[in-house]
Amino acid sequence: MRRLADRNNLALPEALRIRNGQYLWDDFSGFLAAYDSVASVIRSEQDYRDIVHDYFTRAAATGMIYGEVFSSPDHAETAGLAYPAMVDAMAQGLADAEAETGVVGRVVATCVRHLGPERARDTAQLVADYPHPSVTGFGMGGDERLHTMADFAPAFDIAREAGLALTVHAGEVCGPDSVRDALNALRPQRIGHGVRAIEDRELVRRLADEAVTLEICPGSNLALGIYPSRDAHPFRRFRDAGCQVTLGADDPPFFNTSIESEYSQMAKSANLNTSDMLVISECAIDAAFCDADTKIQLRQTLDRYRQS
Prior knowledge:
CATH class of the largest domain: Alpha Beta
CATH topology of the largest domain: TIM Barrel
Shape: globular
Oligomer: single chain
Structural class: alpha/beta
CATH architecture of the largest domain: Alpha-Beta Barrel
Low-confidence stretches: none
Mean pLDDT: 93
Largest sheet: 7 strands, parallel
Radius of gyration: 18 Å
Number of helices: 15
Distance between the termini: 39 Å
CATH superfamily of the largest domain: Metal-dependent hydrolases
Helix content: 40-55%
Number of strands: 9
Number of domains: 2
């Protein structure tokens, strides 16, 4: 953030609090405000390329072989950058990282829930009107306390008709009804977080029966106070119930985490061995928003690791 602010001749946002290299906030609303403050220094195509390249090369050095970066056309527009330019820049960052390390990446375009349903529909239409091979999914982040899931059905219908895979943030700050409403109204293949579904046994069974993958990000859940510790986190309970689960880092700089840390800490807290963790990675490949040939290559990489 400091490098980009200097590059773009911007002062650091006054409302942003930083201590010992970490972003600080008091609650979920404070986190969203901090996120927007940091995003405000991202202004150019070069910025987007560099962020993607930096993250993927660093994550690849710890063992990541595939990742998806969620990106908001609305934030780019606020900075004065058109969506096609943003996507081209991010795709360049992914291509450069893959050429250097072998890591594969895709982009999930997202609408912002607290900007409202009409803006979400416009964002979905924009993404549909400018297809890009690196953009393989559509999702929604932001404040899940606002509006209803059904309000965003038109946006998700547009994305679905454009051939994009779907995911939506649900069931982290809000309870199991958030997850149920997402399933009923938006019909996504994946749910971002979804952890509060554990409070409803029938909903957990539905997630397992319908094979809807949960993108579980324990670092986020702990940082936002959803659970008091990793030992209290329901990841293992979802897995034991037959749900499809993956491990993600969500917003690593904000939650002081990484994909490597999420894997190692979950293995310890949930008492999972290497074979268990490989099954979680296999689930991630199955649920990845990428083409079949790429999934074959990823499985081959995983098999080589298993046999080593």
